[in-house]
Write a structure and sequence with these properties.
Elongation Factor Tu (Ef-tu), domain 3; six-stranded antiparallel barrel; 24% helix; single chain
Length: 471
């Protein structure tokens, strides 16, 4: 018996040793990759999307808002949804008050763009004329001797003596007497020929500027008029006096320049980035320093088809009534053109962050949580800006404090607000350090506000457990 035990014990020890070694090698083979991967990746941490300063080493819910915690991963390893959440900025009520963040809902409103420009009063070219000599002769009398005098269409402005005119009148009187004699002839060709002579002589008088009433007076008087009255083609103001009394003139020589100032033009210079809003028939309000508080109203009648390369402006012609002749040619005036744009989606202009290459607004996706949106903007009118795309009606945008939210995003290393061209990017804080709004951000022209107050301590007997927060 003793001999058998001596043989069995070594065999059992060998089997146990072999089993232990096999188990050890099997454990090393199956657990080495997992251990290696865990060592490389480190412990998995969880955080809240709305409160990124909440960090835990196990899944669960946020002790502040109750949202489900998500894995805290680096931006390069994050999923698209996690990447989007990393760009969001979360503010507590205290932080919102300290940063003066106010939201306004984007909504449709009637929008009209107001274009302000300068203009110069000009003569209405359709209401200008020249008084010319219809015949060669001598100016025997001038009824208008000064520039600025008012002349009427029905009253003569001058009297001209012309030998050619006297000869034409005598010819007409002779044609009249010949017609009466030819009518007595029994030959039909001769009796009808008199009418042709009268018509020809009458036409010559009309070409010399003699009116029908003057021809009728000539027939009644039976002798020629030595002086021919000269009439103006329209009523208006004499803006140029060219001749003197006693001066000899040729046929077609100008005597006066007349302009009707009851209606004038205003040529307004509109910059090239605004003239596309100007349309024919739009109402234009004109004001002048000569008449404070007085507004003149006109309509756009023409848009010139060329641009001034020196001033980069396009001229717009405005037809303007001029009661009392208050507006004088070459007077400088200010013009205001209101171009209706219809109903448009608008937000306060303070909500827009223009980086030079991008236009960004911060939209409140959830209470206290903001996300950046790239938007396409249209017209900017007063304190509102038109939104063409990027924001929907009813969405709330940060009307004030947007630059502070943008600074918070840069400090937190988010993809939404960081890296804006034209804004000095601040370095991200150390891991585990919360980013306070306005603590940096490098926005020129915006002073850094005071850091927000520390979160209030939880009430005794319950509330938030702060032990697992890595502040």
């Amino acid at each position: 018996m003793n001999k058998s035990l001596k043989v069995a014990v070594p065999i059992i020890l060998v089997l146990v040793a072999a089993a232990g070694g096999g188990y050890y090698f099997w454990q090393q083979k199956h657990q080495a990759p997992a251990g290696k991967d865990q060592t490389a990746q480190g412990p998995v941490l969880y955080t809240c999307a709305m409160h990124p300063f909440i960090i835990k080493d196990k899944p669960g819910t946020c002790p502040i808002c109750g949202m489900q915690l998500i894995k805290k991963v680096e931006g390069a390893k994050a999923t698209p949804e996690e990447q989007k959440m990393l760009g969001h900025v979360s503010l507590s009520p205290t932080q919102s008050v300290m940063a003066n963040v106010a939201t306004v809902a984007a909504d449709y409103a009637p929008l009209s763009k107001e274009i302000n420009a300068v203009g110069i009063v000009q003569y209405d070219q359709a209401r200008q004329a020249k008084v010319t000599a219809w015949v060669a002769g001598r100016i025997d009398k001038l009824n208008v001797n000064t520039v600025g005098a008012y002349v009427s269409k029905g009253r003569p402005v001058a009297e001209v003596y012309s030998p050619d005119l006297v000869a034409a009148q005598q010819e007409y009187l002779l044609a009249l007497r010949s017609r009466d004699q030819f009518k007595k002839s029994s030959i039909e060709a001769i009796s009808q020929g008199g009418e042709g002579l009268v018509a020809s002589a009458r036409q010559r008088l009309k070409l010399l500027g003699v009116k029908d009433a003057q021809i009728a007076g000539l027939e009644k008087a039976g002798h020629p008029n030595i002086k021919l009255p000269v009439y103006t083609p329209l009523s208006g103001i004499v803006i140029e006096k060219i001749v003197q009394e006693g001066q000899y003139v040729n046929m077609g020589d100008p005597l006066f320049s007349i302009a009707d100032l009851s209606s004038v033009w205003v040529e307004v210079e509109v910059y090239e980035n605004e003239f596309s809003f100007v349309k024919m028939g739009q109402r234009v309000e004109i004001v002048s320093q000569s008449y404070p508080g007085k507004t003149f109203a006109g309509r756009v009648s023409f848009i010139y088809p060329f641009l001034d390369p020196k001033t980069r402006t396009v001229k717009v012609r405005v037809d303007l009534p001029n009661p009392g002749l208050k507006l004088k040619p070459d007077m400088f005036v200010n013009a205001s053109i209101k171009a209706p744009l219809g109903n448009a989606l608008v937000v306060p202009i303070t909500a827009l962050i223009d980086t030079g290459k991008r236009q960004v607004v911060w939209v409140e996706s959830q209470p206290g949580m903001f996300e950046p949106r790239d938007v396409q903007v249209g017209a900017r009118v007063g304190d509102k800006v038109q939104i063409l795309s990027g924001v929907k009606q009813g969405e709330k945008v940060a009307a004030s404090g947007g630059y502070l939210i943008d600074s918070e995003a840069q400090l937190a290393g988010g993809s939404g607000g960081g890296g804006h061209e034209g804004h000095g990017g601040a370095a991200a804080p150390a891991k585990g350090t919360p980013a306070a709004p306005g603590a940096g951000g490098g926005h020129e022209g915006h002073g850094a506000p005071a850091a927000p107050a520390a979160p209030a301590a939880p009430k005794k007997g319950g509330g938030i457990n702060m032990d697992d927060m890595k502040m």
